[in-house]
Each structure stands twice: as structure tokens, then as C-alpha cells.
Design brief:
Number of helices: 18
CATH topology of the largest domain: Rossmann fold
Low-confidence stretches: none
Mean pLDDT: 86
Distance between the termini: 30 Å
Radius of gyration: 23 Å
CATH architecture of the largest domain: 3-Layer(aba) Sandwich
Length: about 400
């Protein structure tokens, strides 16, 4: 080890603490004000406000690229809505379906927000999806709850497990009376609804709102506001904020990336024992954030998505959908995993393309029509490192 533990800790004690509120740069932090999203806040609030006088609000879908403020707006509005409810009937629940990762865990998270009797609590495993839904619906009905359910990355739930749970939700009106619940779905994918059953579509997407990307100037203002809360005075020069905003602005106006860059840059400056965040710290942070983003995305994938990605990695020069599907079927059979249909695999390819893990570009073949050209976009070493953590897929590597 180049540095002993004692040297590391001694340097940390002697160095200057740059942060005064590190939590202000965490992904879960919801600021009291969301600049440049006042119009979206107002629209979401107007749609959900009928819950305050006992009426069921319309379901709502929020669209936009990563880091455009969808989650922050939704959480801010539902928290304020619940605070205004004198009857205490409004119950709010936020679930990131990608983090929950399965239908069961998503439903268990929803159940946690409801006052279920002790003998009806949802265990970690062991119940059928139907039983869990029945307990949720019964609780809403018996307590007359007005549930506002925020499903973040709702497209992930549908692409991984189909839309059956959403169908049950949208058709549960009679089962939950005199209570009700409203779904606020959040998605990065504008084409998400194309995968839905028409019966789900007709009742889910009653209201829609698209969030535009932030401009570089807007990102700079957001970073300036967060920097004042997170860091001690004089730690982050304006030139560093400008660079951070410019780098995130080039990534489609992603405020989440901008805030992550600033946080990691501050951690790097503290670790190196310097007294302010420099432009070099921002550049080092950019490399680290990008690497962490890819690894986190890979770890969160369901087993079928991992299998498709590993199949794509076998074609060093890229391949087409048909050949990839044949190879995928072979790998699935080899490891005892039920193969999905070609249509479902095409949906997974679209999701992996959206995440930036592979490219699924449509290529014209003249008279022979068009096909998708599949090409891996991440380093195979990174893929192998993360997939080796999954014992079910270790043999593929």
C-alpha cells in the first residue's frame, strides 16, 4: 500500500473539510425550490389537487430525459399535498421500480405505506402477486385511503415483467372503494406506452407532461444554489461551476449528472487535501461518475437483460437482431433460463439502447428491407467485472 492507514487518516484530520451539508448533493435530496420547473410544479399540483376534497385525481405520466427534474417535481408536490390534507386520508408512496427490481418488492414497498393489520403485513417473500394485491386493495378500501402512488421508471417495470400489475391497478376502482388511488408514472422513454395493452393504456395515461432538458445557463443556476447549501463559502470558484454546467449541458441537460459531478469533485478535493474544488477535480470526477454510472446500470439489470447484453458482447463487430436472438436462445438453454420471445428481446434491446449500454440502430438493406444493427457500447472488461458478481451468469464469462 502506497499510504498506510495512519497516514490516510492523519491527512484527513489535518485537511480542511470542504462540505457543510453533503446531503444537499445526494440523489435523494429534494430542495425546497426547484428553479425552472415552476410551470411543471403548478401543472402537477393542479392535476393532483382534487384529492384534497375527496375526489380521485387523474392518473399522470411524466416524461423526459434523465436529470430533467421529473422525480424531484413529483416528490415535492406529493409531499406538499399530503401536508395540506387536514383529513389525514391522503397516503403517498414513492417507489423506484428499478431499485425495487421485482414486481413483488415493488408491491411490498407500496404495502409499507398502508396501515395493514399485523397478520396482513407483506413478508419479504412467500406470497403470490395476487395475494399481495388483494391485501393492498383491502387496506385502501377499509381505511378509505386516498393513495397517491409515484412509480419512478415505470417503463422498467413494464419491460421487465409486463403490464399485468398496471392492469390490476387501473381496474381496481370497485375493489378499493370508498378509497381510491392515483398513479403518477415517471419514465425516460417517450415510447413507453407503445408496450402497453390497449386496456391499460386507456385508463393509465389520462394526463401527460413532458419535461424539457435544462440549458447550460439553467444548470449553472441550479449548481450555484446547491453549492451555497453544500459547501463552505469560497470553496467552489465560479469557473468550476461553469465547467461543471457545460459538461452536464453537453449531456442533454442532465441536472443529476451536474450535481453528481460537483459532489464527486468536492470529495476528490477533500481527499487530495486541497482547499478548493478545481477544474481538474471536475475532470477527474467526470471519469469516475461515468464509470460508476455504467457499473450501477449493469448491476441493476434483470437476469434476462444481462443475458441479452452478454449475448451481444460475443459479436465483436456487431450483429443483427435475428442472429443475436439465435445466440441468446442457445445461451438461455445452456444455463436453464427460459428464453423470451423475439418481440420481448427486441424490447430489451430498446431499453439497453436507451441506457447507452449498446446501440440498436436501424439499418437499411435496400430491397431486403431494414434490420437493427446491434453493437456493444461499453468496455467488455467492465461488463465482465460486474457480471462476475452474478453467480448465475459467471459461467458465461
Amino acid at each position: 500500500m502506497p499510504d498506510s492507514l495512519d497516514e490516510i487518516f492523519q491527512r484527513a484530520k489535518q485537511g480542511r473539510a470542504l462540505f457543510q451539508n453533503r446531503d444537499a448533493l445526494s440523489p435523494d435530496y429534494v430542495p425546497e425550490k426547484l428553479p425552472f420547473r415552476e410551470n411543471q410544479i403548478r401543472q402537477v399540483a393542479q392535476i393532483l389537487a382534487p384529492a384534497l376534497h375527496g375526489s380521485k385525481p387523474s392518473n399522470l405520466l411524466l416524461y423526459g430525459k434523465t436529470g430533467t427534474g421529473k422525480t424531484a417535481v413529483a416528490r415535492l408536490v406529493v409531499e406538499r399535498l399530503q401536508a395540506q390534507d387536514a383529513s389525514k386520508q391522503i397516503v403517498t408512496c414513492y417507489v423506484n421500480t428499478r431499485i425495487s427490481s421485482t414486481e413483488y418488492r415493488t408491491l411490498a414497498k407500496i404495502a409499507e405505506s398502508l396501515p395493514l393489520p399485523e397478520d396482513k403485513k407483506i413478508p419479504g417473500t412467500g406470497l403470490s402477486i395476487g395475494t399481495v394485491l388483494d391485501r393492498i386493495f383491502t387496506s385502501i378500501s377499509t381505511t378509505k385511503a386516498h393513495l397517491i402512488l409515484v412509480l419512478d421508471e415505470i417503463d422498467y417495470l413494464v419491460s421487465a415483467y409486463g403490464d399485468d400489475v398496471l392492469y390490476q391497478f387501473t381496474r381496481a376502482g370497485e375493489e378499493v372503494k370508498p378509497g381510491f388511488f392515483t398513479i403518477v408514472g415517471i419514465s425516460n422513454d417517450l415510447k413507453f406506452k407503445d408496450e402497453l395493452d390497449p386496456r391499460v393504456l386507456s385508463s393509465l395515461g389520462e394526463e401527460e407532461l413532458v419535461f424539457p432538458p435544462y440549458t447550460t445557463e439553467e444548470l449553472r443556476a441550479i449548481l450555484t444554489a446547491r453549492e451555497k447549501i453544500a459547501f463552505k463559502p469560497g470553496v467552489v470558484p465560479s469557473a468550476v461551476l461553469n465547467l461543471c454546467a457545460a459538461m452536464a449541458g453537453s449531456e442533454h441537460g442532465d441536472a443529476r449528472r451536474a450535481v453528481d459531478l460537483l459532489r464527486v469533485a468536492g470529495e476528490i478535493a477533500e481527499r487530495e487535501g486541497i482547499h478548493e474544488v478545481t477544474e481538474d477535480c471536475i475532470r477527474k470526477a467526470s471519469e469516475r461518475v461515468e464509470s460508476n454510472r455504467v457499473e450501477d446500470a449493469l448491476r441493476s439489470l434483470p437476469i434476462q437483460n444481462k443475458l441479452v447484453l452478454l449475448t451481444a458482447s460475443k459479436f465483436s463487430n456487431g450483429t443483427n437482431t435475428g442472429d443475436l436472438y439465435l445466440a441468446y436462445e442457445g445461451l438461455a438453454r445452456r444455463f436453464g433460463i427460459d428464453a423470451l420471445t423475439q418481440r420481448r428481446v427486441s424490447g430489451i434491446l430498446a431499453e439497453l439502447d436507451l441506457l447507452g449500454l449498446l446501440e440498436a440502430a436501424v439499418v437499411s438493406k435496400g430491397r431486403r428491407g431494414r434490420t437493427k444493427r446491434i453493437r456493444l457500447l461499453i468496455h467488455t472488461g467492465t461488463l465482465s467485472k460486474v457480471m462476475a458478481e452474478d453467480s448465475q451468469l459467471l459461467g458465461l464469462l
